[in-house]
C-alpha cells in the first residue's frame, strides 16, 4: 500500500491506493492523475492564454470565482522545473496614457524574446469584451520595454501574430460576417467564416482558426466548430470538423494541437498528416506549443465535489 496527497476544498486528504485504484477518492479531490508535469496549481485562481517564449511559459492569472467590474488578469511566467514569477505589463492603458496599471486579455508568442499582449482600452470585465478598441502590444521579455503597438478592433476570442508580415490577426465585429480582421500598418481587412475563435499563425503563412463554417463547406451543426486553415492564396480549407467547446489552438507548420471536445471526449488532440491523435484527456482551457513543437503547455480545469482546481501542465508529444 502507498499513499499520495490531494487537495480537497482547502483541506488535505491522504488517499490510500489499494489494488491500484483510487478513482473515487481522486474524483472527489479533483486530482485524478492528469497527464504531464504540473508547474503550478490553485483553487482560487484560474490560468489563461499560455504562450511559450524562449524557455519560459507566460500565462495570465485571473479570479476563478467571479468576474466583476474590477476583474483583471495578472501576467506570470514559469520555466519547467522553476517557480512562477510576476511580470509587469509595460503597456499603458490606451484610454488613459498616464495609467500604467495595464492588464492583458490575450497572449501570443511573437519571437524568442518578445511576447504579444492584447491590452483592452477600458476597464470593462473580461467577459464583457465583445467588441472594444484594443492595442496589440509587443513587449521584450528581457528588458520589459515595449517594442511595438498595433491598434485593433477586438471582438471575440484569441489573437495571432504573423512575424513575416508584421501583422496581427484577431476576431472582430467590424467584419460584415464577423470574421477575422487583418491589422497591419494602420489598415485592416477581413477574411474567414462565422464566429471565428482562437486564430494562430503557422510558419508557412497560414492562419488556423475555429469557425462554424469553413470556406465553401457546409455549416457545422449548432455548438460545433471546424478547424479551418486560411492559406496564402486566400482559400479556406477544412482540417477537422466537429469540435465542441473549443478552448485553444496551437500550430507548428503542419502540426496542429486542439484544446476541445472531439467524439464526446474533452482533451488535447494532435492533428497531423491527415490523422488525429489523443494527447491527453481533460478540460484544458488553452494550449501553447514549445518553439521546437515537442511539448505542450496547457491550463487544466478539474471540477471536484467541493472545489475547482486549476493547474498549468506541460505534456511531451511523443512519437508514435
What descriptive keywords fit this protein?
mainly beta, single chain, 1 helix, 2 domains, 5-stranded antiparallel β-sheet, Neuraminidase, disordered N terminus, globular, 26 strands, 7-stranded antiparallel β-sheet, 320 residues, 2% helix
Describe this structure in words.
With 320 residues, the chain is mainly β. The protein is 2% helix and 54% strand. It has one helix and 26 strands. It has one helix at residues 23-29; strands at residues 2-8, 11-17, 37-42, 45-53, 56-63, 74-79, 85-87, 106-109, 114-120, 132-140, 146-154, 160-162, 167-171, 180-184, 187-191, 197-201, 207-211, 224-230, 236-252, 255-262, 265-272, 275-281, 283-284, 288-289, 295-303, 308-316. The strands form six sheets. Strands 16-17-18-19-20-21-22 form a seven-stranded antiparallel β-sheet, with no helix packed on it. Strands 3, 23, 24, 25 and 26 form a five-stranded antiparallel β-sheet that branches. Strands 4-5-6-7 form a four-stranded antiparallel β-sheet, with no helix packed on it. A hairpin with a 4-residue loop joins strand 25 and strand 26 (308-316). The longest helix is centred in the N-terminal third of the chain and has 7 residues, at 23-29.
Short description:
By secondary structure, this protein is mainly β. Helix content is 2%, strand content 54%. The protein has a seven-stranded antiparallel beta sheet, with no helix packed on it.
Amino acid at each position: 500500500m502507498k499513499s499520495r496527497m490531494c487537495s480537497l476544498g482547502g483541506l488535505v486528504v491522504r488517499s490510500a491506493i489499494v489494488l491500484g485504484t483510487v478513482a473515487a477518492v481522486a474524483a472527489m479531490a479533483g486530482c485524478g492523475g492528469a497527464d504531464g508535469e504540473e508547474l503550478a496549481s490553485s483553487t482560487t485562481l484560474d490560468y489563461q492564454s499560455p504562450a511559450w517564449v524562449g524557455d519560459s511559459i507566460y500565462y495570465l492569472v485571473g479570479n476563478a470565482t467571479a468576474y466583476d467590474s474590477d476583474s483583471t488578469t495578472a501576467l506570470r511566467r514559469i520555466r519547467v522545473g522553476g517557480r512562477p514569477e510576476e511580470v509587469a505589463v509595460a503597456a499603458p492603458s490606451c484610454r488613459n496614457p498616464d495609467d500604467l496599471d495595464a492588464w492583458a486579455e490575450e497572449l501570443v508568442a511573437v519571437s524568442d524574446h518578445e511576447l504579444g499582449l492584447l491590452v483592452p482600452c477600458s476597464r470593462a470585465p473580461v467577459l464583457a469584451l465583445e467588441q472594444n478598441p484594443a492595442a496589440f502590444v509587443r513587449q521584450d521579455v528581457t528588458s520589459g520595454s515595449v517594442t511595438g503597438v498595433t491598434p485593433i478592433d477586438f471582438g471575440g476570442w484569441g489573437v495571432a501574430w504573423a512575424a513575416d508580415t508584421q501583422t496581427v490577426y484577431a476576431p472582430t465585429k467590424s467584419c460584415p460576417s464577423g470574421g477575422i480582421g487583418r491589422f497591419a500598418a494602420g489598415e485592416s481587412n477581413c477574411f474567414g467564416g462565422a464566429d471565428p475563435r482562437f486564430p494562430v499563425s503557422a510558419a508557412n503563412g497560414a492562419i488556423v482558426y475555429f469557425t462554424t463554417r469553413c470556406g465553401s463547406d457546409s455549416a457545422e451543426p449548432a455548438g460545433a466548430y471546424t478547424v479551418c486553415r486560411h492559406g496564402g492564396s486566400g482559400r479556406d480549407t477544412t482540417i477537422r470538423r466537429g469540435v465542441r467547446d473549443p478552448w485553444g489552438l496551437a500550430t507548428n507548420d503542419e502540426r496542429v494541437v486542439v484544446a476541445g471536445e472531439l467524439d464526446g471526449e474533452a482533451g488535447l488532440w494532435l492533428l497531423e498528416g491527415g490523422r488525429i491523435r489523443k494527447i491527453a484527456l481533460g478540460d484544458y482551457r488553452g494550449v501553447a506549443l514549445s518553439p521546437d513543437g515537442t511539448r505542450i503547455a496547457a491550463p487544466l480545469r478539474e471540477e471536484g465535489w467541493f472545489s475547482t482546481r486549476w493547474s498549468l501542465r506541460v505534456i511531451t508529444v511523443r512519437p508514435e
